[in-house]
């Protein structure tokens, strides 16, 4: 069975339908890119998968490892190995990156592997050093206060570090590339590529084709008005880069 399946998802906010019959299947070992113009519903989809309480599901199912996650709390979803890159708090005074991540990692480890599987401070420091090295990040990063004075690129690095430590089975990155200069983009992409393994899957949500030069997706989907209207291989992203979204809009306005 697939790792992750969305069937006929209709969802929105305050009675306003934003996702209008969305289907998607993701298998382990696959990187999927979800592209689409602003306002097409990409972030709404990410929030609905995460279980954000402001969003309402009107119809459909989201199956993850065979279970309908729509019946689970956001916490239960995270503990099943689902990871969303925007899920980190804003600046917390006095909490370092390392302390925040140790709490997050141990909460997930206890739920996934058992109460006795939390890491001691020493074990955690070792794991953190290993992941920092893997991501080619400086060790001093871990002792900084979370998000206090972080640049856009550093916030994204903190997310990637969190992902590295949580070892998710399905990771969703919503616009992780937006606002990054080329060096930060490359660092984030290198990190994602280093973390990816055949037992997991990723959904990269992006408006721009640019990040897909660094993270090579196996499948590309285009979202328009709350539905996936086209799916293909990496060549679809290149076509969108060359032609923009307007030709798809024109095509689907005719069909509607
Ligand atoms: P994308 O991420 O593709 O740019 P969004 O999911 O952010 O798209 O938005 C999809 C649509 O839902 C837009 O028309 C937007 O105005 C609307 N929308 C998003 N969030 C809210 C909200 N909190 N309240 C009302 N409408 C919203
Ligand atoms: Mg439908
Ligand atoms: Mg968005």
TrEMBL record:
Record InterPro entries: AAA+_ATPase (IPR003593), ABC_transporter-like_ATP-bd (IPR003439), ABC_transporter-like_CS (IPR017871), FeS-cluster_ATPase_SufC (IPR010230), P-loop_NTPase (IPR027417)
Superkingdom to which the source organism belongs: Bacteria
Stretches assigned to the ABC transporter domain: 4-250
Keywords: ATP-binding, Nucleotide-binding
SMART domains (UniProt xref): AAA (SM00382)
Gene3D superfamilies xrefs: P-loop containing nucleotide triphosphate hydrolases
A molecular function (GO) term: ATP binding
CDD domains in UniProt: ABC_FeS_Assembly (cd03217)
UniProt key word Glycoprotein: no
Family classification: Belongs to the ABC transporter superfamily. Ycf16 family.
Protein name: Fe-S cluster assembly ATPase SufC
């Amino acid at each position: 069975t697939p790792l992750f399946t969305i069937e006929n998802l209709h969802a929105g906010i305050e009675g306003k339908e934003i996702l209008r019959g969305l289907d998607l299947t993701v298998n382990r070992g696959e990187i999927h890119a979800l592209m689409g113009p602003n306002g097409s519903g990409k972030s709404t989809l990410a929030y609905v998968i995460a279980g954000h309480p402001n969003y309402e599901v009107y119809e459909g199912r989201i199956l993850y490892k065979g279970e309908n996650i729509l019946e689970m709390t956001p916490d239960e979803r995270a503990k099943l190995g689902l990871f969303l890159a925007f899920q980190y708090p804003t600046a917390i005074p006095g909490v370092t990156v390392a302390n925040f991540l140790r709490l997050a990692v141990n909460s997930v480890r206890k739920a996934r592997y058992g109460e006795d599987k939390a890491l001691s401070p020493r074990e955690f420091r070792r794991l953190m050093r290993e992941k920092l090295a893997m991501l080619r990040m400086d060790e001093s990063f871990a002792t900084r206060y979370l998000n206090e004075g972080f640049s856009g690129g550093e916030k994204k690095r903190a997310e990637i570090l969190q992902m590295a430590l949580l070892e998710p089975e399905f990771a969703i990155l919503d616009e992780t590339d937006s606002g990054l200069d080329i060096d930060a983009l490359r660092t984030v992409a290198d990190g994602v590529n280093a973390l990816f393994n055949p037992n997991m899957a990723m959904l990269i949500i992006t408006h721009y084709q640019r990040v897909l030069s660094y993270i090579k997706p196996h499948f590309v989907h285009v979202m328009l008005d709350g539905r996936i209207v086209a799916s293909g291989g990496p060549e679809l992203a290149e076509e969108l880069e060359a032609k923009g979204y307007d030709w798809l809009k024109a095509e689907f306005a005719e069909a509607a």
